Amino acid sequence: xxxTFGNNSARNEDVLEYLDTVAIISESDIxxxxxxxxxxxEFITGYSKNELIGxxxxxxxxxxxxxxxxxxxxxxxxxxxxxxGDILNKKKNGDLYWVDSTIFPVLDIQNEITGFISVRYDIxxxxxxxxxxxxxxxxxxxxxxTAQILHDIMNPLMLIDSSLKIIHKKIDESIPYDQQDxxxxxxxxxxxxxxxxxxxxxxxxxMHGTYEQKILDLSTEVEAAFGYLAEKFQxxxxxxxxxxxxxxxxxRINGNSVQIQQVIINLVNNSIDAIEGSMDPWVKVxxxxxxxxxxxxxxxxxxxxxxxxxxxxxxxxxxTKDLYKxxxxxxxxxxxxxxxxxxxxxxxxxxPNTRFDVYLPKLL
Length: 364
What we know:
The protein has about 375 residues and is of the alpha+beta class.
């Protein structure tokens, strides 16, 4: 079978006239030297027919694709198969353009290859829109990552700021300072500063996909998290209770300490903010061994979450808090971290109060 569009072909003028308006068509010999181009090929590339005939198709090579790309292309069509793919080409003036290309061999009656026909469609605009979409997504992801870092370091920064204000006030008013209290506040600031460093390092590891995991005792992580939250509880006059229903060795998981504490701190912070100003506010945190899993529960004196927003609360940037008071990142961060540890986080609607349950695979 012979298929040609060249000068020796009997062509249907109506079909060719239509193809000239929608497709970039060329024909080449077995070496890739051009033997025919249609008018749209000339229009798109900026080359005239006289400049193209006899030249190799490499005349429009942009240099974008690696040698392996064209090696695969040639291997396919020389094996009498059709090749299809997207190619970035270069015009005469140096501008680049993308084409959706289909290249198939032309066979004679002996089933031997006599040349190749290429049918291309300009998809430059489509590719640009896709690239713009990807760029927008990356910017949005970068924005969320930046917001996440700011969200996570805000708590230790607030502790440092609070201690500095108290120290500054005593100095300004020449109030005698208790040495033990001063040491306590300095140690707290030192601990908060260390936590900021840990968060930044953990984010750096996350960006490189190298989050370190080790065996953790969840009871130790809860106590460490509450160490950062103690002053906030005191300032907000919120009662809190921690209960471990099993021995520490039965509450072990494989995870990252900074991540786990992020989950606990974010959940408890949400509780404190939600019940602020209510009568007799309280927060309870419990750990329980369920056999294959360890359950971390954070319960507060609130009366639950409106079913209408329960799906939305996991979305980044969704918040019911006042402007400048919440970013809407806390629960979204918790969900991502828990799922990265092959666990799950749920709202417990059977509880008379607001309750979040985190289930993590137990170290067996």
